[in-house]
Every structure is written in C-alpha cells, then in structure tokens.
Amino acid sequence: MAIKSFKRYEKKFLLGKEHYNNLIPRLLEYMNPDAHCKSGKNYSIYNIYYDTDNNDVIRHSIAKPYYKEKLRLRSYNIPSNPTDKVFLELKKKINGIVNKRRVVLTLEEAYKFLEFGKKPISDDYVNSQVINEIEYYLSKKPVVPKVYIGYTRKAFFGKEDKDFRLTFDSKIITRRGNLSLEAGCFGENILEEDQYLMEVKILGAMPLWFTNILSELEIYNTHFSKYGNEYMRYSSDKQKYNDMREIKRIC
C-alpha cells in the first residue's frame, strides 16, 4: 500500500475549442506537460463515486456547505485482475480548501473493504490512519456504488513552481448502471462537443502571468462539479420521466 495526501485550492473553468487552442501554446511558455502527457497525449481516469440510496452526499455537496466530503474508487487503467492497483480516496473540502487522502490497494482489497467492511492490513502508521478515516466514514454513511465517471486528462505543472498544476478534462462519461471499474468506460458525455473542464490546482495565489493570460483571452472561472452536474442532469431526467408517467395516468 501507498498513500498520498493533498491540500490545495481548486478553481474551475469551462472552455470551448477556441479558448482551449489559444491557451495551450501560451501555457507552454511557463509550464511543462505532466510525465504522462508527453507528445501531447492524454491519460485516462476512471472513478466509482459512493453515495447513500437517497443521494445524501451529493445533495449536501451541491448546497455549497462549509464542509463536505465524498468517497471514490479511482483507477488510471481499466482493471482486469483482482490484484490490479486502485486508489481509494476520501476527498474533503473545508471553506474552499481541498484535502484529499488516499491509499493504494488491490482491487480485491478495495471491494472487500467497501462491500463487507474488511479492513486492509497495513504495518504503516499513516496508511493505517487513512484506512481508519475511511472506515469511520463508512460507519456513519451507509454508502453504495452510485455513479461511474470516467474522462481523459491533459495535465501541466509550473516550470518554476511545481505545486502549480493545471488539468484539462474532456470526454466526461457517466453512467448509473454496471458500476464496476472492470466494466470499462461507456455512458453519457456530460460536456458539450469540443468542451473542456480546466481545473487550476494551487497552494496559494495564482501566478501573475497566468491571471494576465486569462484576462487577455477573456477566460472566466465557473462552478462545475462532475458528480454534481451528473446528479442534476439525472434528477432533471428523472423528474421529466415522472411527469410523463403522471400525464399518462391522468389521461
């Protein structure tokens, strides 16, 4: 097992193709592509988000509370074996500051933990601490696999400040059935064609050169949550379906 911990601010921007094409060359003056994005390549991220039967986690999250947290199972490849490595992540947001704690497990360990409460064994104190945090989360929230979200990502980090990161996510695919990472990436795209979600990940203030570029290109931040937008779309479609059933019943 291995653990990583992140604490940072995140700003989000929705870009069309023109903004994206104009921005990338400017970024390369100050940033380098992530090691997984050499030669212009993207990498893929696959997630299963966990929530209650009543969607309490995401409903609380989209209300923009002071504190929120969510649990997800993440992979950077489509698993094909129980021993394949996956990330179990507990993501917290407190007054705008994101804190992400995660532990690397085998797919089998993760499923046994999430479905049956069997804790993974670790001799490492910090790993054990994160596992205990997740165990506590599971004890107070009866969560189940709720939604799949997969996407492709292009990432950059600052040449001078490697803690300054930018990611561009596209082809954000979601589904509410067949909720296993092994099933692969298929479902509905929640972004428009040629649209990108840019996330700025910072420990403090954004670099002046970056804010100047955003101003010149007239790029403005927005509020966008992958899971939140998926849920609002799902709720809207569900309401439309119920309305149609009610109309047919009356008629």
UniProtKB/TrEMBL annotation:
SUPFAM superfamilies noted in UniProt: CYTH-like phosphatases (SSF55154)
Pfam families, from UniProt?
VTC
- BP GO annotations: polyphosphate biosynthetic process
Q: Which residues form the VTC domain?
A: 7-231
What name does this protein carry?
VTC domain-containing protein
